[in-house]
Design a protein that fits this description.
Elements (H helix, E strand, L loop, with lengths): L18 H8 L19 E2 L9 E6 L2 E7 L6 E8 L15 H14 L3 E5 L10 E4 L7 E2 L8 E4 L23 H8 L2 E6 L7 E5 L2 E5 L16 E6 L9 E6 H4 L1
Parallel strand pairs: 4-5, 5-9, 9-11
Antiparallel strand pairs: 1-2, 2-3, 3-4, 6-8, 7-8, 10-11, 12-13
């Protein structure tokens, strides 16, 4: 059994099922770590007996938004947390939406529930991802136009802030309105990283104000993306001696096949 966890993106609702129904389908598969969230009590740890992980628990908020403590090899104590956040879909006024008020309340309280720092995985990136870019003239080689509220400017990656091997293939499609999520993560001192998908052609990792920010390109071939050889999944390696500083790399199709 391979444990796995699922959160949701802006296209999921288009399949005709709501997130409660999709959660129930995923939980039919052995190893699913998504907790039942129909009547969520975020402060109560739920046992995940079917996960294949001894003693694994979760704190549930809503479908696609929950926290998982990660224990040491002996199961004695938590060394880090994994938080999944349903980042929403579309805003009524146009562009992309934000996490629900319930989801934002949950990420504010999760550090207290877990007692350790966490990495967040969500679909839609935060506006602060633009802090990893550098504004340049449109005539600059490889310059990319920003998205919506940022579309009057062109950008390249700021190599002083991003790791080698990072690349920018499209404007960062973040919400027009900053819901304050990044400020919550920073002020709580309970998070060390945020990783997003959504932008199929972007693959970069950098740091801003002490938090690691990362984008991962599409891994499949059912939609647009980078060149076939650059489609990828992201691997993380966590060392129990310093779990808040993981190594990460893209496992690219061109290298694997």
């Amino acid at each position: 059994v391979i444990p796995f966890a699922v959160t949701y993106g802006n296209h999921d609702f288009q399949c005709g099922l709501d997130t409660d129904q999709m959660d129930a389908l995923y939980r039919e598969f052995p190893g699913c770590l998504n907790p039942e969230a129909t009547v969520a009590q975020p402060e109560r740890a739920r046992s995940l007996a079917g996960s294949g992980l001894m003693g694994q628990t979760a704190f549930a908020s809503e479908p696609g938004t929950f926290a998982l403590p990660v224990n040491d090899a002996n199961g004695d104590h938590s060394v880090m947390g994994i938080v999944l956040l349903n980042s929403g879909d579309y805003a009524q006024e146009g562009g992309y939406g934000n996490p629900s008020a319930q989801g934002l309340r949950f990420i504010r309280q999760a550090p207290r529930l877990l007692g350790v720092k966490s990495i967040i995985f969500q679909h839609i990136p935060l506006p602060q991802f633009y802090s990893l870019l550098k504004a340049v003239p449109s005539t600059t080689a490889y310059a990319i136009q920003g998205y919506r509220g940022y579309d009057k400017q062109c950008y390249v990656l700021n190599t002083a802030k991003t790791l080698p091997g990072s690349y920018l293939g499209e404007g960062i499609s973040c919400p027009d309105n900053d819901c304050g999520e990044f400020d919550m993560l920073k002020e709580s001192e309970g998070y060390y990283a945020v990783f997003a998908g959504h932008d199929h052609r972007n693959g970069f990792v950098g740091h801003d104000q002490g938090i690691m920010l990362g984008a991962t390109p599409t891994c499949g071939f059912g939609s647009y993306g980078p060149a076939p050889r650059k489609r990828a999944a992201r691997m993380f390696e966590f060392d129990i001696r310093h779990p808040y500083n993981p190594r990460t790399q893209l496992l690219e199709f061109g290298d694997l096949v």
